[in-house]
Design a protein that fits this description.
With 252 residues, the chain is of the alpha/beta class. It has one domain: 2-enoyl-CoA Hydratase, Chain A, domain 1. Helices cover 57% and strands 16% of the residues. The protein has 10 helices and 10 strands. The strands form 2 sheets. A 6-stranded mixed β-sheet has the order 1-2-3-5-7-10, sandwiched between helices. The chain has a 4-stranded mixed β-sheet with strand order 4-6-8-9. A hairpin with a 2-residue loop joins strand 1 and strand 2. The longest helix is centred in the last third of the chain and has 35 residues. The two termini are 22 Å apart.
């Protein structure tokens, strides 16, 4: 599910979770376990990447439909905790965006320190509102870390997916490289940042992220209750079902 391979002091975490690398509770539990182990290890840096044409295509909506409110009571907190853990990790983390990074999949990339994307056919964007669901506080605050409120509103309201060149121009990602070099360049950058003083890097990263983490902790208790209610509402679940049937022609 989360395959680890160490390269020159950098841990490459490769998401291997079905064709689309869809996000579910098990994936975030596995990611959190990996990050906890790496935090206290001798590893200097971390790269997160996907497989095939997908970094991650977002939340596994079929599991949401199958499990309903009971599943969401576990899943939404696991998503928020896992993304927050990635965002706050003291070591450098680089996303090697090997393909599509959509909705929750993009939030996963955004939680990293830097995003290197393939110049191939991958697309990025946040499509939650098109599905009919709101962002948890953690996801929204991580977007706010990267974009102004006005930019976030445009991206979230429109749900537009953008290809690699447009994604770079719009600030979704930080660099484009040839597909075969995505992981290689991410490892080089994570290793280079990891060679500086670990304590100095950790303190600097914490200062840069402190206000975002404080807002997450302040607002999540209120916002996430509201988010949970909306996601779990039968009308929302029917909307998700309709969206899935229109998008992929399958019934969940």
């Amino acid at each position: 599910m989360i395959h680890r391979q160490d390269r020159d002091g950098v841990a490459v975490l490769r998401i291997e979770h079905g064709k689309a690398n869809a996000i579910d509770t098990d994936l975030f539990d596995a990611l959190s376990d990996r990050l906890d182990a790496l935090e206290t290890s001798d590893i200097k840096g971390i790269v997160v990447t996907g497989t095939g044409g997908n970094f991650s295509a977002g939340v596994d909506l079929f599991k949401v439909l199958e499990g309903g409110a009971d599943y969401l009571r576990d899943f939404l907190p696991a998503l928020s905790q896992g993304v927050r853990r990635l965002f706050s990790l003291s070591k450098p983390v680089v996303a090697a965006v090997n393909g599509h990074a959509i909705a929750g999949g993009y939030i996963l990339a955004a939680a990293c320190d830097y995003r290197i994307m393939t110049s191939g056919k991958g697309k990025v964007g946040v499509t939650e509102l098109l599905v009919g669901v709101p962002f948890p506080a953690t996801a929204m605050e991580i977007l706010r870390f990267h974009f102004s409120d006005r930019e976030i509103q445009e991206k979230v309201y429109s749900g537009t997916l953008q290809g690699a060149v447009e994604a770079l121009e719009a600030g979704w990602v930080d660099r484009l490289v040839d597909p075969e070099k995505v992981v290689e360049e991410a490892v080089e950058l994570a290793g280079r940042w990891g060679r500086v003083s670990s304590s100095a890097f950790a303190v600097t990263k914490h200062h840069l992220r402190r206000e975002t983490l404080e807002r997450i902790d302040r607002y999540s208790h209120v916002m996430d209750d509201e988010v949970q209610k909306v996601w779990s509402d039968p009308e929302t679940l029917e909307g998700i079902r309709a969206f899935m049937e229109a998008a992929v022609g399958k019934k969940g």
